[in-house]
């Protein structure tokens, strides 16, 4: 008897997903909201045909295996075509983040050696700035009105059946995303066909994001932010009806779309849902949403109060954790059967944690003493490994993000409870060092956002002459709500040691955001850097 298996050797490539979407889900609808707010409708069948045309046209135009083709686009059907068409040509989709500074986009595009660019007409002014900042693209294809540029549609029309597409191996590169560079130079993470297929299969599971054929999915998370968390691939694989929001991402516009298109599951960072909650509370009954609507929330911690408030509104928030380096799904929080009857407080606390890893991913939390005990108290750095976790960066040979025994170091601080649920307490870079002790800014933020008057709160460490650093809270109050700094500190006092309480609470109109919609603490630290100088 030989030891090799009897199974067929089928490479796990994205073609499998596209073929299935075309053959078995061909009539399933994909809706895109355009910049003029009109809705256009197409199907997976039509998208598959156009993706193949794009692939053939790219090959005929000289794109070769491993070449990078960049996109600078909002979420819409043509972007989905590119997600499939570019890899079918053997090339690598590089989704450029349109919220970055043009200099940064230019650096990233050149670093990735992007050859062609597909860009939305409404983003041409940004494109011009990116080129002025030194980006070099050989060819630029414009979706929509194209002025003097080459049109994307015209390129598709050049496709002929005679062009053969390259054979794909599952280890071939499929896409590249750059980390935001919050903590240093942006680094490229290259996903393979195999890593993408495995991520797609697992992320769709009921205990992961739980996306099905019965759903209508609205990815609010941009397709340039870790491939919209893999949701476009998940939807195509599952035959899920897709609704793309285009450029209008303000709460009323999103709520109009969710109501009109009967969305059953949506995904985005917490700041999106903080805004949606405010809009719903401000105009009760205005939007008729689907009963049991679910929202996948990740990118930053989902405050427990937000989870509670959405339950009150008949909507379920699903909390997940991930990174560009983890494709991104690395932890998801779902209450297990044996805790279904636990106290409401216990269940909400679990749901506000980041959760447990999905199948095929493993995590551990480690400090100087080794793996931390599951005591919900001892913290360490979260480490992760799995088939869709980066083993290296494309443009950076420094190995310090990986341990000698093969784990990726996330830079997140976490602890583990007796149920194995991981809770992030902070990013290493955001921890506040006060008088030799650590203070976790995220824990304070989440507690502050549990106060009924608080809409948003970000806590930062500010240099202090005596304590090295002391916490400062920047707080946005809900419309019409009142609270004093003393009241907010009194709200925190029962939960935290006295030295954790912020020395200052500053009330602001808005907290600066990163390109992914997270609180931009680097900017806050800059703004308040001298706040305690004379303390
Ligand atoms: P960045 O936020 O650095 O621009 P990523 O988009 O890759 O880059 O984000 C990864 C980081 O986002 C994680 O390391 C973690 O700090 C944070 N993050 C993601 N999801 C969550 C979550 N559910 N709770 C808390 N933090 C999260």
Search tags:
single chain; 535 residues; alpha/beta; Rossmann fold; Luciferase, domain 3; GMP Synthetase, Chain A, domain 3; 3 domains; 8-stranded mixed sheet; 7-stranded mixed sheet; 16 helices; globular; binds adenosine-5'-diphosphate
Structure description:
There is one protein chain. With 535 residues, the chain is of the alpha/beta class. It is globular and about 75 Å long. It contains 16 helices and 25 strands. The strands form five sheets. An eight-stranded mixed beta sheet has the order 2-1-11-10-12-13-14-15, sandwiched between helices. The model has no long low-confidence stretch (mean pLDDT 96). The protein folds into three domains: 14-316, ANL, N-terminal domain (Rossmann fold); 328-386 and 398-428, Roll (Luciferase, domain 3), CATH 2.30.38.10; 431-534, ANL, C-terminal domain (GMP Synthetase, Chain A, domain 3). Helices cover 28% and strands 25% of the residues. The chain binds adenosine-5'-diphosphate. Adenosine-5'-diphosphate binds at residues 179-180, 182, 298-301, 319, 321-324, 354, 410-412, 424, 427, 514, 516, 518.
């Amino acid at each position: 008897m030989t030891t090799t298996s009897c199974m067929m050797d089928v490479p796990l490539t994205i073609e499998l997903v596209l073929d299935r979407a075309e053959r078995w889900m061909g009539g399933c609808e994909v809706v895109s909201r355009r910049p003029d707010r009109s809705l256009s409708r197409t199907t997976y069948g039509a998208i598959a045909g156009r993706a193949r045309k794009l692939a053939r046209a790219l090959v005929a135009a000289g794109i070769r295996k491993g070449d990078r083709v960049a996109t600078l686009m909002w979420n819409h059907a043509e972007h989905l075509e590119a997600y499939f068409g570019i890899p079918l040509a053997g090339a690598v989709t590089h989704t450029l983040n349109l919220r970055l500074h043009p200099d940064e986009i230019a650096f990233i595009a050149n670093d990735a050696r992007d050859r062609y660019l597909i860009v939305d007409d409404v983003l041409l002014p940004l494109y011009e700035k990116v080129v002025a900042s030194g980006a070099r693209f050989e060819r630029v294809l414009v979706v929509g009105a194209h002025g003097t540029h080459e049109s994307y549609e015209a390129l598709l029309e050049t496709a002929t059946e005679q062009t053969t597409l390259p054979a794909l191996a599952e280890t071939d590169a499929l896409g590249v995303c750059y980390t935001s560079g919050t903590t240093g130079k942006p680094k490229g993470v290259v996903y393979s066909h195999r890593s993408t297929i495995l991520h797609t299969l697992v992320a769709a599971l009921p205990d992961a994001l739980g996306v099905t054929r019965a759903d209508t999915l609205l990815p609010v998370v941009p397709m340039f932010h870790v491939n919209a968390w893999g949701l476009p691939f998940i939807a195509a694989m599952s035959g899920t009806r897709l609704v793309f929001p285009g450029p209008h991402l303000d709460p009323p516009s999103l709520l109009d779309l969710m109501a009109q298109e009967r969305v059953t599951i949506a995904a985005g960072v917490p700041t999106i849902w903080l805004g949606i909650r405010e809009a719903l509370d401000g105009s009760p009954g205005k939007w008729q949403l689907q009963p049991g609507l679910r929202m996948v929330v990740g990118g930053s911690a989902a405050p427990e109060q937000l989870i509670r408030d959405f339950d009150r509104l008949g909507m379920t928030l699903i909390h997940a954790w991930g990174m560009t380096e983890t494709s991104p799904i690395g932890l998801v929080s779902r209450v297990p059967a044996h805790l279904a009857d636990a106290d409401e407080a216990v269940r909400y606390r679990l749901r506000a944690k980041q959760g447990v890893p999905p199948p095929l991913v493993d995590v551990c939390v480690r400090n100087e003493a080794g793996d931390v005990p599951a005591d919900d108290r001892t913290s360490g750095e979260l480490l992760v490994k799995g088939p869709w976790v980066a083993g290296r960066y494309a443009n950076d040979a420094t190995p310090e993000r990986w341990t000698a025994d093969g784990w990726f170091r996330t830079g997140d601080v976490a602890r583990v409870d007796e149920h194995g649920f991981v809770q992030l307490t902070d990013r290493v870079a955001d921890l506040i060092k006060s008088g030799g002790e650590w203070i976790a800014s995220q824990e304070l933020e989440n507690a502050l956002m549990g106060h009924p008057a608080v809409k948003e709160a970000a806590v930062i460490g500010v240099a202090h002459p005596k304590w090295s650093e002391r916490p400062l809270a920047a707080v946005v109050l809900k419309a019409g709500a009142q609270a004093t700094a003393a009241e907010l500190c009194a709200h925190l006092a029962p939960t935290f040691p006295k030295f954790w309480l912020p020395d200052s609470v500053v009330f602001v109109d808005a907290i600066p955001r990163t390109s992914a919609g997270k609180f931009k603490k680097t900017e806050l630290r800059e703004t308040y850097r001298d706040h305690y100088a004379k303390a």
